[in-house]
Design goal:
CATH topology of the largest domain in chain B: Pyruvate-ferredoxin Oxidoreductase, domain 3
Number of strands of chain B: 21
Shape of chain A: globular
Number of domains of chain B: 4
CATH superfamily of chain A: Thiamin diphosphate (ThDP)-binding fold, Pyr/PP domains
Largest interface: A-B, 53 and 63 residues
Helix content of chain A: 25-40%
CATH topology of chain A: Rossmann fold
Strand content of chain A: 15-25%
CATH class of the largest domain in chain B: Alpha Beta
Strand content of chain B: 15-25%
Oligomer: heterodimer
Structural class of chain A: alpha/beta
Number of domains of chain A: 1
CATH class of chain A: Alpha Beta
Distance between the termini of chain B: 27 Å
Number of helices of chain A: 9
CATH architecture of chain A: 3-Layer(aba) Sandwich
Largest sheet of chain A: 8 strands, mixed
């Protein structure tokens, strides 16, 4: 157990007052402190968007990368040194839009990282366009007749792809979120945490009140997340009742577990083998 | 050159052209001969027309030869397509069942001979045997190569192929062939390697630990060679979902502390340019191979070109330093790859290696041994190297532009890296002053980088006329110089391997001494010529350009020059 203030950063925070991201930031610090992962032992990778600014706002090692590309970057870092604890801060546009292809394949690889998707169902940084998770019919300046496309359901997609840790939380429930982040980090394999988050500037539909009226907590219900079909059903629930909690959890070997030569050593701690290179050359 | 024989094996994709060609090549190597072979094929797995052309000599050869001494035609079409290049006293060998009547045709019942000896499947071994017998190759060496080639398949398969080999030899023993020569078995002159293998070996020797790629001709061979030995090394080769992912994966791996690379062709490199910029602004070392092919878009998927030079130098938005190399042979490809890993890490920049289908897929005898470094110098800062690790700044301003590079989670130092413009500590900034200083810091590295660049290679540099080429045309340009000199034109050449930062002073010195220089390139706008002009204010007098997707034959270059100087 570490002190939460150890993670405090003096970087000026550039989010709107009242932004859901503040709750997520608080929950991250709380979870890291509870797990005793000190700032120098955590690596946080992010793409682009309001969510992707997060790692600057707490003390950690960080790589603030390109829009949509946090997952391949995190994949490379994890393969290079699978002893690293890696978290990703992403958003609904970053992870499910620009980085949609990487999202699918990072899940397939079961790379052992914890992905926090700040899902406010709208583009914040570019000022209010629809995102893949915007509700059908939602109007924006760019989608003035309402969103035509179906809403992307990240949890159902992740389950269908075989993700071993699929959870949803809410930025307004820091304690709930902290608990899920802790479980996500402990989970060996790809952990998806989709975090519902109001956007006070650009999303007038999915507000704090809107969510509070609909959400119910799977932990309180005593739900055990070991049934794939039940998880699929929960992931599809939206509207009057919105479940939050861990929907599905199943451990299986992660990408780096499956590579035999990484059992003894990480790639980074391996030895350079000039004699062996020479013998490969001589075998020609 | 007393021996200079060109053998072409032509047929449909899937008929085993390469298998026959490689048997011939390995027999020549084992006999102490020199050779080089090009692989010409279409973007298909079966059918169409492909050929493998091997040039055999008792002197080093680094370029293909256009005249054909011996044509092994595995289908009718190959004879029709290539008879124009068949020498008057050359012969075309073909399967008796499909044979047509025509000049210089030697019809042999390969299939029937195979059925009687090793079985139908061995008909290519019969054909290889017939070709070698015609050339006068000792059977004993062919026997050894057949045994080595089929070793993994067991004694029965070896036995059947040896019977087939002998049947091929017997079939032509009474035929007298003008170009048969005396074989004087000697030690091999070097290893047999294509450019792809040389780059893969260079990556191993450069301590590459992670390679990510998306399959694309003609780059895939590099990754295939790496994957085939990955189990023996601390090395992971990952097939990414696309090139965007591949380049970001290697940036992540390099950031975490291992040397990393990717290989692609022009189209994939287009997708990687965003990541290239990320490597640039975050000062993360990576090695990217662009094995060029004709474009734009899909272009000619299995053919060769040199049209990405200016693109590679300028790829991605805005400005940042990078290395661009274009090796001219497998030996240079190996050495350049080792250097690229070293230099990228030393200067914390991306390094791009430009090769092409010709270099990647052609076989050469490599005389200069591939020298594997004994140690790898890393340029990594640890807590112990710092006065106060908790004050560590990834982008600390320095006079060289190179800041001490620590690794994430390796000590007390927090490593903060950002693709947004950043302050010394890695946090984002909007400050005009910091932005300017950061651009200058990155740019300052160019001075140190320039001092690492080798001047271009030269051949008769004090000649009145110089031919300037880059990358894989090195062998063809040099042989064109030989042709020109034999014809009384005092020409020399300058071959670039290190292209960016451009070694302008060395180039100026060489080019100012000649009367005229001509650029020789596989593109349509003389990209090297334009680069030389921009960097040295010296103008080329003419060009020899080819952009049909095929490599240069030396005579084409010599003819192109003759037209302009006479």
């Amino acid at each position: 157990m570490a002190e939460i203030k150890e993670y405090d950063s003096d970087v000026e925070i550039k989010w709107c007052p009242g932004c859901g991201n503040f709750g997520i930031l608080a929950a991250m610090k709380d979870a890291l402190a509870a797990l005793g992962i000190s700032p120098e032992k955590i690596l946080i990778i992010s793409g682009i968007g309001q969510a992707a600014k997060t790692p600057h706002y707490l003390k950690c090692n960080l790589f603030h990368a390109l829009h949509g590309r946090a997952l391949p970057l995190a994949t490379g870092a994890k393969i290079a040194n699978h002893e690293l604890t890696i978290m990703v801060n992403s958003g609904d546009g970053d992870c499910y839009g620009e980085g949609g292809n990487h999202f699918m394949h990072a899940i397939r690889r079961n790379i052992d990282i914890t992905v926090l998707v700040h899902n406010n169902k709208v583009y914040g940084l570019t000022k209010g366009q629809a995102s893949p998770t915007s509700d059908e019919g939602m109007t924006t300046k760019m989608q003035s007749d309402g969103v035509i496309s179906e809403t992307f359901n990240p949890l159902s997609v992740a389950l269908a792809l075989g993700a071993g840790f699929v959870a949803r939380s809410f930025s307004g429930r820091a304690e709930h979120l902290s608990k899920i982040i802790r479980e996500g980090i402990k989970h060996k394999g790809f952990s998806l945490i989709d975090i519902l988050q109001p956007c006070v500037s650009f999303n007038n539909v999915n507000t704090f009140d809107w969510y509070r009226k609909r959400m119910y907590d799977l932990f309180e219900e005593g739900y055990i997340p070991d049934d794939f079909n039940k998880a699929m059903e929960l992931s599809g629930m939206w509207g009057d009742k919105i479940p939050i909690g861990i929907m599905y959890r199943k451990e299986k070997p992660s990408y780096t577990d499956k590579i035999k030569r990484l059992k003894e050593n990480t790639l980074i701690s391996g030895k350079y083998l000039p004699e062996k290179v020479q013998s490969v050359i001589e075998s020609l | 050159m007393s021996i200079d024989i060109s053998v072409m094996i032509g047929g449909e994709a899937g008929q085993g052209i390469q298998t026959v060609g490689e048997l011939l090549a390995r027999v020549c190597r084992k006999s102490g001969l020199y050779l080089m072979a090009i692989n010409d094929f279409e973007s298909r797995i079966r059918g169409g027309h492909s050929f493998f052309q091997v040039r055999i000599s008792d002197r080093p050869v680094d370029a293909p030869h256009h005249d054909i001494n011996l044509l092994l035609s595995l289908d009718k079409n190959s004879y029709e397509l290539h008879r124009k290049d068949l020498l008057d006293e050359g012969i075309a060998v073909m399967e008796k069942r499909n044979s047509i009547s025509g000049k210089n045709i030697l019809a042999i019942p390969f299939l029937e001979l195979a059925e009687k000896s090793g079985g139908k499947i061995t008909s290519n071994t019969v054909a290889a045997g017939a070709c070698l017998a015609l050339l006068g190759a000792p059977f004993e060496i062919f026997r050894e190569i057949v045994s080595e080639t089929f070793a993994a398949k067991g004694e029965t398969v070896i036995g059947k192929n040896l019977e087939a080999a002998l049947a091929g030899y017997e079939a032509v023993k009474t035929f007298s062939y003008k170009f048969a020569f005396e074989w004087k078995p000697d030690k091999p002159r070097g290893i047999l390697s294509d450019g792809s293998r040389a780059i893969a070996l260079g990556a191993l020797a450069g301590d590459c630990r992670f390679a990510a790629f998306y399959p694309m001709s003609p780059a895939t061979g590099i990754m295939a060679h790496l994957a085939s030995v990955a189990n023996e090394f601390p090395l992971v080769v990952e097939q990414a979902e696309d090139e965007i992912s591949a380049v970001n994966m290697i940036i992540g791996a390099s950031f975490a502390g291992v040397r990393a690379m990717t290989a692609t062709s022009g189209g994939g490199f287009c997708l990687m340019t965003e990541g290239l910029g990320l490597a640039g602004i975050t000062e993360t070392p990576v090695v990217i191979v662009n094995a060029q092919r004709p474009g734009p878009a899909t272009g000619l998927a299995t053919r060769t070109a040199q049209a990405d030079l200016l693109f590679a130098i300028n790829a991605s938005q805005d400005e940042f330093p990078r290395f661009v190399f274009a090796p001219g042979s497998p030996a240079e490809a190996f050495e350049t790859t080792v250097r690229a890993f070293h230099l990228a890490e030393k200067h914390q920049v991306p390094a791009i290696i430009l090769t092409d289908q010709f270099l990647n897929d052609s076989l050469f005898i490599v005389e200069r041994p591939f020298a594997v470094p004994e140690n790898i110098e890393r340029f990594i800062a640890c807590d112990n190297d710092m006065k106060n690790p908790s004050e560590y700044k990834r982008y600390a301003f320095t006079s060289s532009g190179i800041s001490p590079r620590a690794l994430p989670c390796a000590g007390k130092a927090l490593v903060m890296v950002s693709g947004n413009e950043h302050k010394e500590d890695g946090h984002s900034t909007e400050s005009a002053e910091t932005r300017t200083r950061m651009v200058n810091k990155r740019k300052a590295k160019l001075y140190g980088m320039l001092s690492e660049m080798n001047p271009p290679g030269t051949y008769f540099p004090e000649s009145e006329i110089l031919l300037a080429g880059w990358g894989s045309t090195r062998g063809s340009v040099r042989e064109a110089v030989d042709i020109l000199r034999k014809d009384g034109i005092l020409a020399g050449c300058i071959n670039f391997s290190d292209l960016w930062p451009f070694p302008a002073d060395a180039v100026k010195k060489i080019l100012k001494a000649c009367e005229k220089f001509y650029v020789v390139e596989l593109n349509s706008t003389a990209q090297l010529g334009r680069l030389i002009k921009e960097q040295t204010a010296l103008s080329y007098s003419g060009t020899v350009l080819k952009y049909d997707g095929r490599p240069f034959y030396p005579f084409e270059i010599a003819d192109g020059i003759k037209k302009q100087v006479r």
